[in-house]
Write a structure and sequence with these properties.
The chain contains twelve helices and ten strands. By secondary structure, it is α/β, with parallel strands linked by helices. The two termini are about 35 Å apart.
Length: about 300
Amino acid sequence: MEYTSLGQTGIRVSKVCLGTMTFGKEADEATSFSIMDRAQDVGINFIDTADLYGAGTAERITGRWLQGKRDEFVVASKVHFPTGDGVNEQGSSRRHIILATENCLKRLCTDRLDILYLHHWDENTALEFTLSGLTTLVQQGKVLHVGVSNFSAWQTVKAVHVATVNGFAPIVCIQPMYNLVKRQAEVDILPMAASEKLAVFPYSPLGAGLLTGKYLRKESGRLQENEMYRERFKNRQYWETAERFAQYAAARGVSPAALAVAWVATHPAVTAPIVGARNVDQLNDVLQFLDMDLSPVDRAAITALSVDPEI
């Protein structure tokens, strides 16, 4: 396994991050444990979760597995989305951030998060309140570093600026969606991250499984099971790109899943892609990307299979 710098923090993380969205849903606890065992075997030291995943179930499973080996891993979680029915049990208010993080720590059976992400932009809360809450958690030692997920470029830059001018805990990393069929991050998010020296951990490098070719084979997956993902990837151009990509991978005798992740990983602004799996076989398939030597020419050829994002 190769390791890389988490922005300017001095922390070293594996070149791939294990996502846990499937834990407690598509992957039961025993399967989730096997997935994490395999990740550890290959040298992955970076785990990403969120309080949203299974209403905390993914964190509980991850926390139980981490017992006795917590210090070996960089652990990230996220807060923002509803955690209950109360009117204040959601959003990025100082109140919700602090309470939700306390609950994350309990579920993960740990005293701190290496990274806490704001899971979404909150248009109803001033960043000064949001970032002051995050800073309090950092000062208490319950959070070591702060990141943002699903923020646009301007939202990220605004958060970076507000943190800087107010002496709040700095934003050190971002989590954008990025894959061969949804390349909008190339327009402004990735250049912004490179300029601001932010670590970039893209999620959905497989496009909800679209780039694995399984839907072309009439197999089931998230695009059949979840309305949000059906809506997100309904564009016909995405499916046409996926078909061209599957043919490209087949002609070269390589796993399309691994090749899709390799394409994301080789963008110069990307620190490490986040990959998830429903079982160990899926994880092993994706991890083949670690042995792929994708040249700039190869990457350009794959990029040409897709439609350039609008500027």
